[in-house]
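Re: beginner question about structure tokens

> Can someone show what the tokenized structure looks like for a real chain? I only ever see the sequence side.

Sure, here's an example I had lying around. Input first:
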Amino acid sequence: MRNFILLFVAALFVGCASSGVQVTFDDEKSNAIRAHIQNYCNNDVEAVLALAADNVEVYINSSEPISLEDVLSIVEVQHATFGPITTSWSQDDGGEDIGAWIESTNYPEGPANEAVSVTQAWFTWNGTSKLSGEVISVPVHVVYVWNSEGKIETEYQFYDPTNIAAAVEASLAASE
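And the corresponding structure tokens:
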């Protein structure tokens, strides 16, 4: 009987061992993305690029990647038009603003995929127009896919660019 109980307890611990998808919130990759987003807000392009793989692919509301040069142009125009740029995230009205909800997930190899590590960020992008003083707030979801060297190999950005683009156009028109 004692052997049966030991076997049952051993099976219970082995059965509860972590296997499969693992989600974390305060790990190295999640913290790297927190810093990455803050580097973007601070317009520290060099630090932003330091986390990207040499062959990074960036998709902004599209199934077609844009060039790194186009990404850098977008960042430049955004910072020329808005200041400051911040991010915010709070679960409750009046609750603590943590800047962004960030989680990293490690997916195991499956029948149709290799093992992959992904970090996702949800936040509200806030920019104050340097021209009008208007604050524009846009919900954003970004997915970062990591390579084996700990660099971002693919980035997917999802947001409605309408109000940001209108403020950029107004700023450009005013400068002509």
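Each token stands for a local structural state, so reading them left to right follows the chain. The chain has one domain: 22-108+115-175.
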